[in-house]
Automatic annotation (TrEMBL):
Superkingdom, natural source: Bacteria
Protein name, entry field: Uncharacterized protein
Signal peptide: 1-24
Lineage start: Bacteria, Pseudomonadati, Pseudomonadota, Betaproteobacteria, Burkholderiales
InterPro entries, A to Z: Chorismate_lyase_/UTRA_dom_sf
UniProt xrefs under SUPFAM superfamilies: Chorismate lyase-like
Assigned keywords, A-Z: Signal
Length: 200
């Protein structure tokens, strides 16, 4: 069967529209846009007083879930003791109790980040400690009454320059959280996952 030249041209032009979107997103052609979006989120988090709030705003802006709410899923059995350097940053001695909490933060079904949190229970209220121990509430939401802010002391790009696809982890932040009275209450290590780009 002979295909008319005009019909052939129309089919060629329509081919990108018929290609599954997932294929385009995983190809090299989609990487620059994905990298740009990851850089935008990275900047948003660095500029925010709360990573949870920044993620929730991102989730809402890109209609990733209804409602657009960040939920922490506790990962038990992975307790890590605070190092001497962490205790120094938190301003506590070797005898002060520092607890570790590991969570996966989700927006709907999308894994947004994996986070480790070392916090000082004695600097939080009894209700805050209960919520951290017994519920899946994100740390940032639990301590909101303290009007916290964060200071990032390390940020690392995990996206290799020669990557051929979007990596599982995009970037990592390490920060100390302070109360409005400038008292350190926690140190966090956050690894942001490719789920943040799931709206593409």
């Amino acid at each position: 069967m002979t295909i008319h030249p005009r019909l052939l041209a129309a089919l060629v032009l329509a081919l990108p529209l018929l290609t599954p979107r997932a294929h385009a997103d995983s190809s090299g052609a989609g990487l620059p846009q994905a990298q740009s979006q990851a850089e935008t989120l990275n900047a948003n988090i660095l500029a925010s007083s709360s990573a949870t709030l920044a993620l929730e705003q991102w989730c809402a802006a890109h209609a990733m879930a209804t409602p657009a709410r960040i939920v922490a899923r506790l990962q038990r059995g992975n307790e890590q003791a605070a190092s001497a350097e962490q205790r120094t940053r938190l301003g506590v001695d070797a005898h002060t109790v520092v607890k570790h909490r590991r969570v996966h933060l989700y927006c709907g079904d999308h894994l947004m980040s994996e986070a480790d949190n070392w916090y000082v229970p004695s600097r939080l209220s009894a209700e805050m400690n209960r919520l951290l121990e017994e519920t899946d509430t994100p740390f940032g939401k639990v301590v909101q009454p303290l009007a916290p802010y964060r200071r990032t002391f390390a940020a690392r790009n995990l996206w290799a320059a020669d990557a051929q696809e979007v990596p599982a982890a995009l970037f990592e932040h390490r920060a100390v959280l302070y109360t409005a009275a400038h008292q350190p209450i926690a140190e966090v290590r956050e690894s942001y996952q490719r789920g943040v780009l799931a709206f593409r």
